[in-house]
Design a protein that fits this description.
By secondary structure, the chain is of the alpha+beta class. It has one domain (about 1-185): q2cbj1_9rhob like domain (Jelly Rolls). It has four helices and eleven strands. The strands form two sheets. Strands 1-2-9-6-11-4-3 form a seven-stranded antiparallel sheet. The protein is globular. The two termini are about 25 Å apart.
């Protein structure tokens, strides 16, 4: 696990195994329960990750979340569990996810399953389009309150629930889709702090 400490809170980055990516992609393509009522974005048809798949990989993801937690609070007992999980499939140029945080959890995460065939060209034209940006605080002299991440298939990030983040829209037609998933974690018996 690599930690990105560019500003404020640490952001953990992990490379996911191919077998897991394949299973998540298959589940995403099969569709599922509409998760749109829980999200802020303009993304058409977000779906919940099926519970059997979350259960199958609960230990894998919870262990990653606990490793993140242990780095921040090595002496504090914890028992992190998955509280929710969903897929986002950005297929149109006008889809985006506005600045938000994930409430009712302690840790959030995002992983990348698929990118449009023309994603490199989109990124080359503009440093924000289609990218994930974390935002902490306000603009200050000699301080950068943001970190912008270019998605790569298999990359998975873990961060505190309160860290504001956004996904910028692209203007160009997408050749394929920008497919991601998010999982939220709660500490057993504790409210988010």
């Amino acid at each position: 696990m690599e930690f990105i400490d560019a500003f404020g809170p640490a952001i953990a980055k992990v490379k996911l195994p191919r077998k897991l990516l394949k299973e998540l992609n298959v589940a995403c393509e099969e569709g599922g329960e509409n998760y749109g009522k829980n999200l802020m974005g303009t993304i058409e048809h977000p779906t919940a990750i099926p519970l059997p798949l979350l259960s199958k990989y609960h230990k894998f993801f919870a262990d990653l979340a606990e490793e993140y937690h242990d780095r921040a609070y090595p002496e504090e007992p914890h028992a992190l569990r998955i509280s929710s999980g969903w897929f986002l499939r950005m297929r149109r140029a006008d889809e985006f996810n506005p600045a938000h945080c994930h409430e009712d959890c302690n840790l959030s995460s995002v992983g990348y399953l698929k990118l449009p065939d023309n994603f490199d060209e989109i990124c080359a034209e503009n440093k924000y389009r289609g990218r994930l940006q974390f935002i902490l605080g306000a603009t200050m002299e000699y301080a950068n309150p943001t970190i912008t991440i270019t998605p790569k298939v298999g990359d998975y990030y873990i961060f505190p629930w309160w860290l504001i983040h956004t996904v910028y829209p692209v203007r160009e037609p997408l050749v394929g889709e920008r497919r991601s998933f998010s999982i939220s974690f709660k500490r057993k018996g504790m409210r988010p702090s």
